[in-house]
Structure formats: C-alpha cells, structure tokens
Amino acid sequence: LQMPGCFGFVFAMYSDRPPAPVNVSIMNLRADSATVSWEVPEGDVIIGFSILQQRQDGHVQRFIREVNTTSRACVLWDLEEETDYIVQVQSIGLYGESQASKRVHFRTLKKSDRFPSNSSNQGLDKSRNLQTGEMIIIVVVLLMWAAVIALFCRQYDIIKDNDNSNSKEKVKPSSERSTPEHHSGGLLRSKVGHL
Prior knowledge:
This protein is of the alpha+beta class and 195 residues long. The protein folds into 2 domains: 2-116, Immunoglobulins (Immunoglobulin-like, Sandwich), CATH 2.60.40.10; 118-195. 46% of the residues lie in helices and 26% in strands. Mean pLDDT is 76; it is low at 1-13 and 116-127. Residues 20-111 form the Fibronectin type-III domain.
C-alpha cells in the first residue's frame, strides 16, 4: 500500500522540474571561445542554469553552474582551435534541474579565421563602424583642444606684451620725476640756500 504513495511522490518531484531549454545555439564563434545562448519556455520559475561542455571525442572539459541569474547566454573560454565540441544546457528551477537540452555541435575556428559567418560579419562591421566613429570623435576633440591651446597661447603672448609695454611706460615717468628731486636736493635745501 505504501508503494503507490512513493511513486506518486517521485512523480510529483519530477513533474515540478522545469522544462529543458530550447533553441540552444552558438554565437560569436572564435578560435578559442564561443557563446552559447538558449531560451526557456514561458511560465516556469528559473533561477539558474548548468552547462556541460565536452569535446567531440567524449572528454568532458567543463561543467558550469550558475544560480541566482536570469542570464540566457554564457561564454565558453579556453577552447582549442579547430576542435569539435558538444554543449548541453539545463535549467535550474526551485525544485531541481531540467533534463538536458538537445546536444549542440560546433567547431572552433582557426586563429587566422576572423569572419566565420554572415551574422558574425555584421556584428564585426558594426563594431568596426563604431570604432571609426569613436576615432572621428577623438580626432575632433583633440583638434578642438589644440585650437583652444593655440588661442590661449596667442592671447597669453598679447597680454604679456601689453604688460611689458605698460610697465615700461609706468617706470619711465616715475624715474624722470624722481631724478630732478635728487639732483636739486628737494625743497628744504633750496629754502636753506635763500636764508
């Protein structure tokens, strides 16, 4: 009589597991890295994911487990060039993990290969355009700063020249006024001479 209850408990436990991720795909494929992305069916509470990465020859290389995340992508790093890999993803729910997704096969590129597909080309072209735009902005800002510095130096030279000419004009009259007073001896000496 207890057996159906145990089976019912086991069945309920497995029925609370989330469904396996779908649309697992590989993006940003390079010689030493790749990004695996996936989708999760609506309506299930997913708190993390697990990724199993292995080489085609069966050698398991990495098991990644992340919880407390809503991420739907993960970067696989330290891959070997021109090597076949298999990836599977599991969703982690409140009551356990889902079954593994379908196996996804991919092959890393040679180090000399930079443009594996049209979709990657579009992404690289966008980043290349972005870099060109950034370079234009940097050049414009540098030219503006150079113009400001040149204008400042020019204004500084004008102010410096004006200060030098003003100080010469101020010094000259005061020295002319003081020289006769010293030669004549001032008013007191002239009064004494008359007495």
